[in-house]
Amino acid sequence: MSTSDIDEIVSDFSRFYILTILYEAPSHGYSILNKFKKRVGKEVSPSLIYPFLKQLEQKGLVKHSLKPVGAKKKKVFGLTKEGKELCKQLFKRFSALVSVAIEPSMSICASCGCKIYEGGYNEVINNKEMTFCCVHCAESYKQETQKKH
């Protein structure tokens, strides 16, 4: 994979992440830069953020307003109703992709049926090792199986 291919993929991820930041709350450009660096651990270029915000605004997905931030007024960008709907659709798609990636390493709680990504509580019951999300589900499972016998 070439460097330009990797840069394009990272750029697309960066745009997706910018949308997640805006979905959480309206933000100004500098705030987006800081949140991105803090959460992803990588700096994103203002030359990516500002043209992307302008593009979103031209498509009616984002609106800006001038708001006081400290001693200055800054453009604060917020998603429109259409922008929020777009994000919800993207989040569903991304969730499906992540599920494919992590599903093989997930366990299911033998008591409540919730999915467990990491950890869990293991206990041997009737010579069978079982996985539970917590000790409380293990106790509940043991009580239910005792009632049945």
CATH superfamily of the largest domain: Winged helix-like DNA-binding domain superfamily/Winged helix DNA-binding domain
Biggest sheet: strands, sense, closure? 3 strands, antiparallel
- CATH fold node name of the largest domain: Arc Repressor Mutant, subunit A
Radius of gyration, taken over Cα atoms and rounded to an integer in Å = 23 Å
Number of domains: 2
What report would you give on this structure?
The structure is a single chain. The protein has 149 residues and is α+β, with helices and mostly antiparallel strands. It has two domains: 3-103, Arc Repressor Mutant, subunit A, CATH 1.10.10; 106-148, no CATH class. Helices cover 56% and strands 21% of the residues. The protein has five helices and seven strands. It has helices at 3-24, 29-40, 46-58, 81-102, 135-148, and strands at residues 27-28, 62-69, 72-79, 107-108, 115-116, 121-125, 128-132. The strands form three sheets. The protein has a three-stranded antiparallel sheet. Strands 4-5 form a two-stranded antiparallel ribbon. A hairpin with a 2-residue loop joins strand 2 (62-69) and strand 3 (72-79). The relative contact order is 0.09.
Attribute tags:
149 residues, alpha+beta, Arc Repressor Mutant, subunit A, 2 domains, two-stranded antiparallel ribbon, elongated
Please give a quick description of this structure:
By secondary structure, this protein is an alpha+beta fold. 56% of the residues lie in helices and 21% in strands. The chain is built from 5 helices and 7 strands.
